[in-house]
Amino acid sequence: MNIILIGDSGHAKVIADNVFSAGNRVVARLDDKHTEIFKANGCWFGPVSEVSKLMEKEQAKVIIAIGANSVRRKIVERLALNADQYATAIHRNAVISPSAAIGYGTVVMPGAVVNAEATVGNHAILNSRSVVEHDCIVGDYIHIASGAAAAGLAKLGEGALVETGASISPMKEIGQWSVVRAGSAVMGDVEAFSTVMGVPALEIKAGMEK
């Protein structure tokens, strides 16, 4: 399969490796830092506005290769593509249960594990060595960072960010567009649009970074 990446940064490089590991090919990296379209080493580079032309020319599908959850959502809204025009990039060294469901546009990095009956939404990022345990529900546009884990029956709302090495206890709910800081241990529910940190994770008080 031919893939067009929207984004041309470090995160895009990692996703390109994911695509290659599955036997697919990156034919373009589009980013608005490029003002003109050009080809180098067999790959197209140019602004995001070139996506429709290149999809037709290369018979390609799209992955949004941008790490920031909110920016990924904005790009999806801007492109207004159909679900079947997006690809899913699952690294060959990821472990996905046959009973798990992975949404379109989602990227699963090497060493990530998605266990039985888990559901992962669209345009999500499951980074290297992350774990989504059995029966978890993971929303659209989330990012579970390297080494982070969600235990069984946990729920992660749209746009949630679980930073490196953080853990979520069983049956806990992480509200939409919330942030769990690196190394934290979530032992209770996290409200939407909030930021928590620590062991156990507590909401950051006023005056601290949010």
From TrEMBL:
The keyword Acyltransferase applies. Its EC number is 2.3.1.-. Residues 2-79 form the PglD N-terminal domain. Gene3D superfamilies: 3.40.50.20, Hexapeptide repeat proteins (2.160.10.10). Acetyl-CoA binds at residue 143. GO terms for molecular function: acyltransferase activity. SUPFAM superfamilies: Trimeric LpxA-like enzymes (SSF51161). It is an enzyme of class 2 (transferase). The record marks 135 as: Increases basicity of active site His. It comes from the Bacteria. Pfam families: PglD_N. The active site is at 134 (proton acceptor). Keywords: Acyltransferase, Transferase. Substrate binds at residues 9-11, 31-32, 67. This is Acetyltransferase EpsM.
